[in-house]
Amino acid sequence: MIDYKGKVALVTGASTGIGKAYATELAALGSHVILVARSKDKLEALAKELSSKYGIEAYALPADLSKPGAARLLAEQIAVLALNVNILINNAGFGTHGRFEEISSEREQEMISLNVASLVDMTHQFLPYMQQKKNGIIVNIASLGSFQSIPYMATYAATKAFVLSFTESIFAENRHLGVRVLALCPGTTKTEFFDVIGTTEMPGGINGTPESVVKAGFRGIEKGRSYIIDGISNYWIAQSARFLTRKFTAIITERMTRPASSKTAASIPASGKSK
Question: Family assignment (predicted)?
Answer without folding.
Answer: Belongs to the short-chain dehydrogenases/reductases (SDR) family.
